[in-house]
Amino acid sequence: MRRAVLSLAGILFAVAVAPNAFAGATLMTGLGGTAGYGTNCMPPNDDGSSPAGTPGLDITPAFPNGIHFYSGTYTTTWINNNGNISFNSAIPTYTSDAFPGAPQPMIAPYWADVDTRGTTFCDNPGYPDGEGYPAGATCMNPASNGVWWSITPGQLVVTWDQVGYFQCHPTPVMTFQMILSSAASCGGSTTGMDFDIEFRYATCGWEAGDASGGTNGFCPPGTVGTLCTPAQAGFDSAQVPDTNYASLPMSQMAGISTELCTGSNLTPPQPGVWQFVVRGGAIMCPTAGQACMTSMPGICAAGALQCTATGSTTCVPLTPAQPSMCNGLDNNCDGMIDDGPCPAGEVCDGTACVSQCLEGGCPAGESCTTKGLCVPTDCLNVTCPSGERCVGGACVDDCSGITCPIDQVCRFGSCVDPCAGLNCGMGQVCEMGMCVPSCPCTTCTSTQTCETSGPLNGHCVATDCASVTCPAGQLCQAGACISACTGAVCPPGQACQASSGTCVASALPDAGAADAGGGLVLPDSGPSGVDGGGGTFTDDGGPQPNEDGGDGGSTFGDGVAKHGCGCRTAPAGQGAPWAIGVGIGLCVTFARRRRRSVRR
Question: How far is Cα 252 from Cα 230, in angstroms, rounded to an integer?
């Protein structure tokens, strides 16, 4: 018998109010069988596996050479009732171990105490607690509360359909799916052992079984980590030392069910869908794009993790060092707030270039301060914090009123390419500063085409723009080239340059500083002293970004779509994939062929 005495938490908290179940992704169906999830399913059981003993489930019909997962190559696996698959033997463990710490190599979409006996088989002597199912028991084609699988060429799909939790609780339910797909179909495999992983969470209604300390499927308040253990999701190599692992957000924390059903690591986010790339055995840069701190000063402090040539991560600034400005920030990242330069006849008052009071007078609408500086009268006694400026008597964010050129974002009052200088790693590309699986390793929508060459290689683009080539400074929308400056309102003192589609310093009169730039558009050549390329700056010799310094393990993002990654990485299998990432930090603006389009 597995558990004669339930946890203390289950006794002390006999009544708990379970949160509402969250609905997330749509599962893959059409795989055969009565439920559409395949023709194979496990009998009702608690802590069972399929197969129940050796030698394991043969996966060569899907992956003829097996799959390469961390340091091992596997041709068999065990599907465990408790929300995971393992590669050395069956795992009956019902309370999840925190990663690292898995008993053996495993992929766990939702490792928790799944109990598919329900009320029908709960008291059946052939289906006791924790002892799986009787020898010779077969699939009973359950309408719910079942574990199904399908093996077809290039794909293994395991579905936990409306499963309950221990002890014999049929509701609330969890419905989730794990899809392993051969990378050979997307040109990423040279050995046939590379693959991709997708987790889909459709209904998320519980987090911990009774014997894991749960009450009504959830941990009572104050018991997590002591008396109660919620589910774990992710991957673990179980090597010694165990340094290759990764956890999905909120693993073994209260709220994991909500996070997995409502979160996503795709761009744009697709609630309940999480995708990962396995190349050479490793989950490729699973943390690429996550926020980090570089230890550099000023605007260089906030960073994002990017892949290196070795598959590790390093923290690089989201906003690289820029020339000194008068905006209340340390733009050149030298550890000191910048004080200019300012135009002739103006001085920096700390946050803006202003005129000096001449003979005690200032232009209309401005007043003279005690320091002898002319400032807008409505901002005379207003002091704004770093990162904000005074407009109309109120402090507003540096990016307030700024509309950046298409495919750029505003950071610290400047318009930047969110993918510049960041590398997502093999099998992923950057979409508006977020790492996503490249196509054809992921499916484009019915109105999109997978780009397989050029600067947008690996991106899903709008089909009506797939054959359109646009000049520098333009991009394709609805089948036609438009200027990237369309609708742009650049930061104060800048204008959108048509030749590059970027905001650059403007020598033209500021037609509307109050509205963050007035929407000026420069002709094809920049003003004297401007490089015309849209603000490529030279490193000022400051400290370099820190290495991640981790032990190889990681925790995936917080369910929000991720930042970062390389300028334009090629799909896996085309040339030396890491050669692209080595020089990615030197990436410069090139002629954008067509707009990066929404993937899914």
Answer: 5
Q: How high is the pLDDT of residue 208?
A: 98
- Clarify whether residues 467 and 332 are in a common domain: yes
358 inside domain: no
**Structure-block tokens of residue 571:** 């799909």
The two three-digit tokens of residue 595, written as one number: 């707009």
Determine how β-strand 245-247 pairs with β-strand 554-555. Answer: parallel
Whether residue 16 has pLDDT greater than 50: no
β-pairing, 448-450 with 434-437?
Answer: unpaired
178, two tokens: 């794990």
The residue range of the domain holding 552 is 294-337+386-600
The verdict on 330 and 278 lying in the same domain is no
| Token pair listed for 566 | 């390389």
Task: Say how far apart CA 28 and CA 257 lie, in whole Å.
Answer: 20
Burial class (CB in 10 A: 0-12, 13-18, 19+), 98: middle
- Give phi and psi for 543, each to the nearest 5: -65, 150
**Which is nearest to 316 in space by CA: 461, 456, 418, 388?**
418
Whether the pLDDT of residue 88 is over 70: the answer is yes
State how far Cα 75 lies from the chain centre: 30
DSSP state letter for 224 = B
pLDDT at 585 over 60: no
> With contact defined as beta carbons under 8 Å apart, do 182 and 170 qualify?
no
Decide if 527 is inside a domain: yes
Domains held by the chain: number: 2
* Structural domain contains residue 549: yes
β-pair partners for 204: 22, 174
Q: What is the pTM of this model?
A: 0.58
Q: Give which of 136, 139, 114 is closest to 35, Cα–Cα.
A: 139
H or E stretch at 305: strand 302-307
Same-domain check for residues 26 and 83: yes
Residue-wise pLDDT tens digits, 178-209: 999 987 544 444 457 889 899 999 999 999 99
